[in-house]
């Protein structure tokens, strides 16, 4: 378990916190591209790492991410006019370009030099793979744009969603690297879920509910192996990639299904954006697959219309159905793989008190991920951070059978490398 001080250190991500400074060294998802669909469309509020920001796409299509509050009298730029390559405050007309430069100050004399001394805080915002990525760290340390496999594929090969999760990012992310819960939290839905049903891997998971865990450090984070019995000669391995600071790639079920992954981006210390994506490296997603994803199946979720808050949420006890639980239709009485996860993560409170935990052998990945994050805090001024190099990101997860005498990270070495245009390895 963590000490109280360590828990605070890992969970606070505001501008002046150690973890906040660490996260600002990475590019991360800020908005779906569809939220700023065209030039001069309405600006969008976005809060990231405790900072309230405004995002807009200007007349030329350039993207801006600015401090939400005007440098003049701190009115919200959300109410501003997005026009003629700038965002103009509705209060006194001060106008900013995408880099935060003040381009017009109609409330001051025409010959005034005052505007040359004003600059709105701004951050780079770049579109790639259907996502608008933000970088909020020092300009001189800005890394290359992310090269996670799904972000480099054609538009038809991926589906992306995001949802509001009402917890700190850490307990959400820890859920993403916890493979042992699948045998219980999702036990009665593995045959119904389109990403699991009809696969050999699904049968191995149901047959062996006590996986053995092995974890190896990778250049980008961790390689997490969950081992289950398959036959006399082989183990069934589900191998998850955790890429610093908060990305996961889910081991697939069969090559006919798309792969999946997540990111958990802090909004503030008590909420985060849970990003989810499905993708296939060698084909477009089928219409039936897309329809299931749009309907909130698999790792996605149903929304309250017009929002990114989930329809099942803590205010309605996640639409829990005790009869469905009693009849073994769902293990927890909650419908949907995603909701089964986030309901339990949110039940821990806004920020889980990790001083009360009693961790076992199945929690090895969670323990090592925490250690990796804490180690990065100690070394970030002197060493390259894990997960920043694009080579760290060009990896896959896998599920496979391996001989019992073969270490999982050696047996899966080729399967976890991205080779563009090739299928992934999965059973």
What does this structure look like?
A hairpin with a 5-residue loop joins strand 17 and strand 18 (272-279). The two termini are 35 Å apart. The protein has eleven helices and 19 strands. The longest helix has 16 residues, at 364-379. The chain has helices at residues 4-11, 18-23, 169-176, 182-185, 200-207, 287-294, 322-326, 337-347, 364-379, 390-393, 408-411; strands at residues 27-32, 44-48, 51-57, 63-67, 81-82, 87-88, 95-96, 102-104, 122-123, 125-128, 131-135, 158-165, 212-217, 221-229, 234-243, 247-250, 259-266, 272-279, 398-403. Strands 12, 13, 14, 15, 16, 17, 18 and 19 form an eight-stranded antiparallel beta sheet that branches. The chain has a four-stranded antiparallel beta sheet with strand order 2-3-4-9, with no helix packed on it. Strands 5-6-7-8 form a four-stranded antiparallel beta sheet, with no helix packed on it. By secondary structure, the chain is α+β, with helices and mostly antiparallel strands. It has two domains: 32-141, Rieske Iron-sulfur Protein (3-layer Sandwich), CATH 2.102.10; 149-412, Alpha-Beta Complex (Naphthalene 1,2-dioxygenase Alpha Subunit, Chain A, domain 1), CATH 3.90.380. The model has no long low-confidence stretch (mean pLDDT 93). GO terms for molecular function: 2 iron, 2 sulfur cluster binding; dioxygenase activity; metal ion binding; monooxygenase activity; oxidoreductase activity, acting on paired donors, with incorporation or reduction of molecular oxygen.
